[in-house]
Amino acid sequence: MKRIRCLLLTALCALLIAVAPLCASEEEPAPTPPGQDITWLPLEDGLDMAILTFTEKNGEDFSRRISIRALRFDTGHFDVCLYSSRWEGPGVPTLREWAEKKDLVAAINACMYLKDGQTSTGYMRGGENINNGRIVSRYGSFFVASPRVPGLPRAAVLDRNEDDWRTLLPQYDIVVQNFRLMGPDGGQVWPEHGPEHAVASIAEDMNGRILFLLSTDPCSVHDFVSALNAHKNLNLNSAMYVEGGSEASLLLRLAGKIRLWNGMSPATYMLSSRGDDIPLPNILGIRRR
Description:
It contains five helices and 16 strands. By secondary structure, the chain is mostly beta strands.
């Protein structure tokens, strides 16, 4: 019996180690509740992190706090890169493997993908490499980066209903299409009682900075948008949904150390459901310029 207890304890410790992220720093930004100035933690020039909190209320007897981790960067300091296992060769790396292989400072999902494990569900192109050449009519956002002509923003989130995307897409090397997260001025475009899961998103603020956003807490996309809208001084201009569920991931890599966050599902709410072993075929990352 004693041996069995020891084995169980060893297994539990191994599980906790497997799901615990490696810290890039002992510092964490103080969580910012709605209505307060956001506490941004400077990580290096042009790169800041914040934790945004929001209380989701569902009737008088139930409420749950959502925490959104926001990683904000200035494209004057960082280049955005798009990688796909379809272009890179055999195997599908994890986000950690992508970051180490490509020397990335931060990374996030580029998009949802089809059952073949490689093809983006929406249009996706990196230079002359095409992952999916079909424009999906029901997807209302495009993330673009690496302009081919001078004078354009180095990266942007385009709203299909507001921007001249047909003209702009050919002028960028990197294009990824997915669901529009919100309408103009943060308008809700998602159903109020949709499915709950982790949410990863990419946004652009009014100053042209790009944000990687992740809620590991299960929530509806409607509530995710409500949480962002509750923090008005984010000054978001536009945002795009990129992934949900346990695959939704965000990575930070500083001084060779990695901090990784994965989505949780309601069934595994207390622990990250799959740790950092999730193969991700298509990712967006940033490198210092």
